[in-house]
Queue: 2 jobs
Job 1
Amino acid sequence: MSSAGTSGLASPPGRFNLGYIWLISAVAALGGLLFGWDWVVIGGAKPFFEPFFGIATDGVVDGRPVILRDGSLSGWANSCALLGCLVGSLLAGASSDRFGRKRLLIAAAALFAVSSVLTGWAGSFGQFILWRIGGGVAIGMASNLSPLYIAEVAPAHLRGRLVTLNQLTIVFGILAAQLLNLLIAQKVPDGATAAEIARSWNGQYGWRWMFTLVAAPSVLFFGAALLVPESPRWLVKNGQDEAAERVLSRIGGDAYAATALGEIKATIATEEIARVRLRDLLEPRLMKILLVGCALAVLQQWSGINVLFNYAENIFKTAGFGVDTTLRFIVITGLVNLIFTFVALGTVDHWGRRSLMLFGCAGIATSHLLIGLAYAQGWTGLAVLLFSLAAIGCYAMSLAPVTWVLISEIFPNRIRGTAISVAVSALWIACFLLTYTFPLLERGIGTGNTFWLYAAICAVGFAFVRLFVPETKGRSLEQIERQLAD
């Protein structure tokens, strides 16, 4: 079968330079690895830097000694990076259309390295917050640029798997952070006070190394990003057709390069320039596509899964587990996340994007209903863990990777960088609202009812995907553009 049936381009899949395609995609996906690593490292460090900075202190409740947290400062420490994520996403959108995808990937790698070291060795809470926001900027840039770059270099019949590769590296980063946090942290005695934790090796140095180790893969990412080519679609958009053709030839041969170059040029008006104005996105046809992308981004976050990662300590503590057990359970959630991301990698280009999204919404909604039921019936302990793992598994093979695939595919060539920036910015705003409101909802309506609320959101998401999200598997970016324009 010719690739015209699967990719819309003339060169058969067997003639693609698969080693080169996977290599440059893997380099871009290192941004995803750092995204995941830097994003969750705070979960393992939280029990230790909070006593160090005086956010967690010793107190007495009902005659029993307990560790009390300053809720506002704890929430700010846990969510401040999201402010940076929003800034980084907006910065990447405006800058990648002007300066190119490659240069921004290099800048993100450098910022990851610097911010992780300075966060780890912050001398005050204010410095910690400042550099945590800086790390968030790097996360926001990588979350925008890595799937964008991969989608623009990938042949259509491989694009789903290659963009899912970015999600796989995010999951590897999450798991690496969880394992290293577990290995770095020394055993915490049962009943340890906040003062004892603050004076311990964990409180003085352990949490610092948890953040600092992010610098190691950041340096690798920086060096590798110097060697990858620029996106051929960005090159065409900026009048560098010969450079684009060279990149496309190395990806799929001369015939593929000629056909791909023709398709790309056909979807970019000759009068277009490198800069994209935000008002261009307000054209009725583009606005419809943009709203679909933003809604998918919000759905991914408001499905509630990141609560299970960001507030794992709270959730498992409420379910009756201690600090050491919680750290081990966090690693288990990371392993489940990894296993089911491999499932997505093998199915996204066969089952299709839309089918996986529908399955994910239904599976996550059911899991959240069971978590809520467990809390309502007092089934704490193992029941909460198992239902949480079910939700994470459904998410890992559906909403987590496929949302990024769809966001990277559905926007037209000429406005893709800016449009993805807007959609990813919506994602980070939704993530901030999710993270900020969970403690408020937990106190206001209870943990079980909060998860029932997330289940209802997933049910609405199921209806939205069924009504408004097209199937995009096997189509070139230019074919998708023409399909959505009809």
Job 2
Amino acid sequence: MIAPATPEGFQPTARAQVIGGKTWTVPVLANGIVFCRNSQGDVVAVSVAN
């Protein structure tokens, strides 16, 4: 999910499922890319840069 950080509350502006299965590891943000890994070893990299 993508949501602006505001004092008024959490209002998602975008949502997507990028990987299936169980994900025990925490997603990592590095240089505008979010990396996600599931328990089967699959890795997905999603660009969130403008």
